[in-house]
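Following up on my earlier message about copper (II) ion. Here are the inputs again, as you asked, copied directly from the submission form:
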Amino acid sequence: MRLLTALFLAAALSAPAAASSAPTVTIQDDAFSPSTLTIAAGQTVTFVNRDDDAHTVTATNGSFDSKGLDTHDTWRHRFDIAGTYAYFCQLHPFMKGTIVVKAATP
Ligand SMILES: [Cu+2]
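Thanks, got it. Here's what our run produced:
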């Protein structure tokens, strides 16, 4: 019985590790990291602001806009359509990033 409990706990504890591999872009030192992120269609990207400054995640083509993200704010966006999405920070237009969305394989 104890062994089963241990196995169950091990399985439960390992679950969050898988979640941490979710696509994430960190905003730090006035830059998006990674500057280019490749995902599959249907995936959700989490943007995390680790800077002292406010930033935005704004699509160059206007298809998405996080609005202002303060320090430690996170913002998520799901990309359903394959393509290359360039984005920038409206407050610091020199900050640029790209999300490459590949068609999901059936
Ligand atoms: Cu910015």
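One observation from looking it over: The radius of gyration is 17 Å. Hope that helps, and feel free to reply on this thread.
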